[in-house]
Design a protein that fits this description.
single chain; about 300 residues; mainly alpha; Mitochondrial carrier fold; 12 helices; about 75% helix
Length: about 300
C-alpha cells in the first residue's frame, strides 16, 4: 500500500536544498555556460575548431588555462539564481505535494491507483512549482546574457540595467519559460517518483539511501531534459538577445524552422544530457539526501 511520505521541517528543506544549490553552482557553472552557448549557436558545427570558437568565442585562440577562466561569466547572478531556484523547487515541491495529499489524494488514487496516484501527485506538485519558478526569471535572464551575450551589459550592473531596461524586459519570454517548466518539472519529479515506486519499491521516498536517490534522480533528470528540450531552446534564444533587439518566441520558432529545421529544437540535447544531466542529478540527489539528514540533525 502506497502511503504518504514522512514530513520534514521547513528549515530542513531550506538547508538541504540551499546546500545542494551551492555545491551545484561551484562544480557545474562552466558546464552550464558551455551548454547555453551551444544552444545559442545558429550555425552547424562541423569541426573541432568551430566547436572551440563557439564555446570560447573571442578567446578561442588563447592558451587553454585562459580559455577555461572565460567559462565563469555571470557567476554572481548564477549563484544567487541557482540557490534561490533550488530552494524554491526542491524545498517547495514537498509543500505542494503535501497540499495535494491532503486535499486530492482520494481523487488521484481512485483515478490512477494508489502507487501511480502517489507518483502523479509528486509530478503534479513539481509542475505547479515549476510554473511559479518564473518569479526568478530576471536573474536567469541576466545569467544567460552574461554567458552568451555579455556585450549587452555594456559595463552596467544589476541596478543600472533594471533602471535602463525596466523590470518588464527582464521577464521577457515568461510565457515560454512557464510552458517549458511545467512539463519539465512534471517529468523531473514524476520520473523520480516513478523510479522510487516501481523500480526501487520504496514505500516512503524520504527513507531512500544516497544510492537510491541517485538512481531515481537519473530517471527524473533524463525525462525532464528530453521533454523540455524544444521549449528550452526557444527560451534561451529569447533571453540571449540584446535588450534593444527583442524577438518574440513565435518569431524565433518561425525563423528556426525556416533556417535550421525541426531538429534545431533539440540542438544541444546530447551535450545537455551529458553535462546538464549530471548537474541536475547531482543537485537533485543531494537535496533528497540532505533534507532528511538536516531534519534528523534538527530533531536532536
Amino acid at each position: 500500500m502506497a502511503g504518504n511520505d514522512r514530513k520534514q521541517s521547513g528549515v530542513a528543506r531550506l538547508l538541504g536544498s540551499a546546500s545542494a544549490g551551492i555545491l551545484e553552482i561551484g562544480v557545474f557553472h562552466p558546464v552550464d555556460t558551455i551548454s547555453k552557448r551551444l544552444m545559442s549557436n545558429h550555425t552547424k558545427i562541423s569541426s573541432g575548431a568551430e566547436l572551440n570558437r563557439v564555446i570560447f568565442r573571442d578567446h578561442s585562440g588563447e592558451a587553454l588555462g585562459k580559455r577555461l577562466f572565460t567559462l565563469f561569466p555571470g557567476l554572481g547572478y548564477a549563484a544567487v539564481y541557482k540557490v534561490l531556484q533550488r530552494v524554491y523547487k526542491y524545498g517547495g515541491q514537498p509543500f505542494a505535494n503535501e497540499y495535494l495529499n491532503k486535499h486530492y489524494k482520494a481523487d488521484f488514487d481512485q483515478a490512477f491507483g494508489e502507487k501511480t496516484g502517489k507518483a502523479l501527485r509528486s509530478a503534479t506538485a513539481g509542475s505547479l512549482i515549476g510554473i511559479g519558478e518564473i518569479v526568478l526569471l530576471p536573474l536567469d535572464v541576466l545569467k544567460i546574457k552574461r554567458q552568451t551575450n555579455p556585450e549587452s551589459f555594456k559595463g552596467r550592473g544589476f541596478l543600472r540595467i533594471l533602471k535602463d531596461e525596466g523590470l518588464f524586459n527582464l521577464y521577457r519570454g515568461w510565457g515560454w519559460t512557464a510552458a517549458r517548466n511545467a512539463p519539465g518539472s512534471f517529468a523531473l519529479f514524476g520520473g523520480n517518483a516513478f523510479a522510487k515506486e516501481y523500480i526501487l519499491g520504496l514505500k516512503d521516498y524520504s527513507q531512500a539511501t544516497w544510492g537510491q536517490n541517485f538512481v531515481s534522480s537519473i530517471v527524473g533528470a533524463s525525462a525532464s531534459l528530453i521533454v523540455s528540450a524544444p521549449l528550452d531552446v526557444i527560451k534561451t534564444r529569447i533571453q540571449n538577445k540584446n535588450f534593444d533587439n527583442p524577438q518574440s518566441g513565435f518569431t524565433i520558432v518561425k525563423n528556426t524552422l525556416r533556417n535550421e529545421g525541426f531538429t534545431a529544437f533539440f540542438k544541444g540535447l546530447t551535450p545537455k544530457l551529458l553535462t546538464t544531466g549530471p548537474k541536475l542529478v547531482f543537485s537533485f540527489a543531494l537535496a533528497q539526501s540532505f533534507i532528511p539528514m538536516f531534519d534528523k540533525m534538527l530533531q536532536k
